[in-house]
Amino acid sequence: MARDPLDRYWMILGGEAEARYLTSKQTMMDVDLRSDTETLWAIHSSAAPSKKSQGEVSLLDLKAELAGRMLSDCTMCERSCHANRACGEAGHCGVLDTRISSEFLHMGEEPELVPSHTIFFSGCTFDCVYCQNYDISTNPVSGMMIPPDLLSKAIEKRAMNDAGKVHQLNLPAASKNVNWVGGDPTSNLAFILRTLSECDVNLPQVWNSNMYLTERTLELLDGAIDVYLTDFKYGNDICAKRLSGIDRYMEVTQRNHQIARAQAEMIIRHLVLPSHLECCTRPILTWIAKNLKEVKVNVMGQYRPAHRAQGFKDISRSIRVSEYESALRIAEELELDLCA
Ligand code: SF4
User: Fold this and answer.
1) Pocket of ligand 1, candidates 69, 73, 74, 213: which has the most ligand atoms within 8 Å of its Cβ, to mutate?
2) Position in ligand 1 atom list of the atom nearest CA 80
């Protein structure tokens, strides 16, 4: 029988495996966090999550320290602004202090993920002209500042509603995972790792992202994230530049999908854009079939012309039923494993 692409995810939910961040939290190391950054990266590169008990610093603490240092010369995403965000210098995304626009139990995600404790960050590393969440992605100073220790309590509380009480009191069901999203979570890497350092609940961590991260950011996520929920948008660099203001889209996202898949489990989302079946949908799905065939794919048909989309003729309308059906047909012909 074929292996379930989310095998480990289900094992964590069944209590038979541990969320990766918990293992990193219990991997104790003999390291001085006041050491210079190069030394800390060298120690991090040779560390493996193993629940060793020597030392007073956990691998998760080391990750959080390195992410915190990246704020002084930000290269969390491939825009590589080198902004000193720690001193109030905004980079392209504009994110300084982490702001949370909302956190709730999302029932509209993939069936495998609901109820999903989604934590939406303000701000984004992309400038998508059709952004469906533009109210938060284009306003990095909107939302609330919630300290990591308080957010960790919310995460634990959302995970604890027991089934009996849910039914009797009409409460929402307990969360199956924590879903870090935005905008995009990348600019908030340091905050997320600090929050996980405060958590103890055995819940899968989901990185819901445009995947425009640097390799360094991916290194820090290795051992903290259980499922990458990726948003694969374009099948060529020209559409990516024109509609999201992004350079080197194909090189970066294809590289990152492969790195992320080697680290953890994955669900790939593709939002079908009107008039972009041949330039984007087909090449993306073909690439997945060739390189990541075993992952689950969600071909999404809910595009609507939001934000500035009316200024771009090709995407100024919703997708036609026939376009969505064609996208599904391509995925089926390629024998992709589609989400239910
Ligand atoms: S996360 Fe923001 S500041 Fe950092 S490199 Fe990316 S766009 Fe620039």
Assistant:
1) 74
2) 5
